[in-house]
């Protein structure tokens, strides 16, 4: 095993269903509303679950990163049906292809990548891509992330046409910023690529120090109904202050 550092700072796992999540640090864009400022660790863990609803809570930053050898050792005894690559942006890790090869060849895992789409992923080593589109209006995208979105939208089309990849789209609904009109524009863009793609609209979770509020349940549900007229597989997600029990237990591996 090569001695290489990774950007993996956190791992969680569900023994019930064999799902593992690897969290990578580092990103190639700079979202004003980056959720990692609020919570950088798995918010489904029992110890983290409620703290994201504390308006003043801000997540600590990761302090330690695994080497490739340490990562493989921690995963070696786990059955990995599906591995999610997430955190910040997994594509910023120069060890990513080594990790993917280990997951595919040694663990025979189905692999799902969560990405901002700024960079084209190594599609031959993936099964699924969950693509977060921040905005389609160029000025809003630049204001939100500090970067132009032309390549991102092009990458979305490329990934959709890649053989063997299941593509999912998602965005964050932020009233008075990425507002209803913009979310519907994002839906229209996705429909122009493929009207059958799944699209999840997440409710913004306020970050301390930023001016925007969370949408109400009524607002996001009404928006989702409008989005469904453009993309029939549109759904939404909003926090419930931790009231709904999780469908399965998860534990921290690192
Ligand atoms: S793409 Fe994700 S991790 Fe990167 S800055 Fe935006 S919200 Fe944060």
What does this structure look like?
The protein is of the alpha/beta class and 254 residues long. It is built from six helices and nine strands. Helix content is 26%, strand content 19%. The protein has a nine-stranded mixed beta sheet with strand order 8-7-6-5-4-3-2-1-9. Strand 3, helix 2 and strand 4 form a beta-alpha-beta unit. Helix 5 runs parallel beside helix 6. The mean pLDDT is 95.
Write the layout of secondary structure elements.
Blueprint: E1 8-14, E2 19-24, H1 68-75, E3 82-87, H2 96-106, E4 110-115, E5 128-132, H3 138-145, H4 150-160, E6 166-173, H5 180-193, E7 199-203, H6 217-230, E8 234-237, E9 251-252
Parallel strand pairs: 2-3, 3-4, 4-5, 5-6, 6-7, 7-8
Antiparallel strand pairs: 1-2, 1-9
This protein binds iron/sulfur cluster.
At a glance:
This protein is of the alpha/beta class and 254 residues long. It is built from 6 helices and 9 strands.
Beta content comes to 15-25%
Query: How many domains, in number, for the residues?
Result: 1
Q: What's the CATH H-level superfamily name?
A: Aldolase class I
At CATH level 2, the architecture is Alpha-Beta Barrel
Average per-residue pLDDT, rounded, comes to 95
Helix content: 25-40%
Radius of gyration, in Å, reads: 18 Å
Using the alpha-carbon principal axes, give the shape. Answer: globular
CATH topology: the name is TIM Barrel
């Amino acid at each position: 095993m090569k001695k290489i550092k990774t950007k993996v700072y956190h791992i969680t796992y569900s023994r019930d269903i064999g799902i593992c999540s690897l969290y990578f640090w580092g990103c190639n864009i700079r979202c004003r509303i980056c959720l990692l400022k609020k919570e950088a660790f798995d918010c489904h863990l029992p110890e983290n679950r409620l703290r994201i609803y504390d308006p003043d809570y801000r997540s600590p930053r990761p302090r330690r990163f695994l080497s490739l050898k340490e990562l493989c050792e921690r995963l070696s005894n786990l059955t990995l049906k599906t591995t999610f690559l997430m955190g910040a942006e997994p594509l910023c890790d120069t060890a990513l292809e080594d990790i993917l090869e280990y997951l595919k060849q040694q663990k025979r895992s189905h692999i799902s990548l969560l990405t901002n789409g700024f960079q084209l992923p190594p599609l031959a080593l993936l099964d699924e891509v969950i693509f977060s589109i921040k905005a389609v209006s160029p000025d809003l995208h630049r204001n939100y992330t500090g970067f132009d979105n032309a390549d991102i939208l092009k990458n979305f089309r490329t990934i959709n046409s890649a053989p063997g990849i299941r593509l999912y789209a998602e965005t964050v609904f932020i009233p008075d910023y990425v507002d209803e009109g913009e979310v519907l524009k994002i839906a229209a863009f996705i429909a122009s690529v493929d009207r059958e793609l799944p699209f999840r609209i997440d409710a913004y979770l306020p970050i301390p120090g930023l001016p925007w509020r969370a949408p109400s349940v009524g607002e996001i549900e009404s928006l989702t109904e409008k989005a469904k007229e453009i993309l029939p597989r549109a759904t939404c997600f909003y926090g419930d202050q931790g009231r709904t029990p999780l469908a399965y237990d998860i534990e921290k591996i690192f």
